[in-house]
Amino acid sequence: MHGKDIKITGIRKDFGATNVLKSIDLHVRKGEFLTLLGPSGCGKSTLLRLIAGFDVPTSGSIEIGGRDVTRLAPKEREIAMVFQSYALYPHMTARRNMSVPLEMQRLSFAQRLPGAALVSGKIRQIRKEIAVDVERVCEQLGLASLLDRKPAQLSGGQRQRVAVGRALVREPSVFLMDEPLSNLDAKLRNQLREELADLQRRTGITFVFVTHDQKEAMALSDRIALMQDGQVVQCGAPDEIYRVPNHVSVARFVGSVA
Ligand code: ADP
Ligand code: MG
Questions:
Q1: Which ligand has the minimum distance to the alpha carbon of residue 84?
Q2: Which end of the chain is least crowded, N or C, by CB within 10 Å?
Q3: Which residues belong to any copy of the ABC transporter domain (predicted)?
């Protein structure tokens, strides 16, 4: 898998008369783990949703891997997103939860092929490929023994792992996560944190991770973009932000001044 870079230029977002993102410029490097860190309400989720394509900016542009995606639908962006709540289908097993998005992606293409016999053969082949891809991701995430369970039979941590797995099987270039660990207890949070960092190193996917938790950001990130009131006030390696805060509000937030 190969990550792609994200170039955010002059992004502004208004909701009605309210200006939520002011003017954001940010370059997420290919294959890095970048965290958007900031207090609740500063605009992290709004920015992530714009990168994902769930909403369009009022002005400014977003490029992924050099391609202007500002007005493209999420499915045209090579991204996958994991949310704070797991959003799994309750009536489906973990295996089905992970295969369904892939089927939608790959079978919609097969169904457009001419010839019924060709189509059913092709569909069988695609289903097999999907099963192999799901197994591979499950090995990586330690999910293999849980594949036949439904969400109600899984713990919170296991559900979130299935949600991560479901996003990963699509082999995204960019992986977007909005506070994916905040519903988990401290022990699981630490464990999943390690797994995510490891996953990023092994896959080379570009990770954009949202949190309001400084410790989490410090532990996980190659770089942190610190947000405040709809702006990125500083972007740099964790130790740089901690040791050389460029603004008193940064220093206060990361706790490097009293
Ligand atoms: P964060 O994720 O950092 O907590 P959000 O991006 O969710 O912050 O929200 C930033 C601000 O934008 C908040 O004041 C929020 O109320 C406002 N906001 C977010 N989405 C909408 C929306 N769809 N309509 C109006 N206001 C919104
Ligand atoms: Mg949020």
A1: 2
A2: C
A3: 6-254
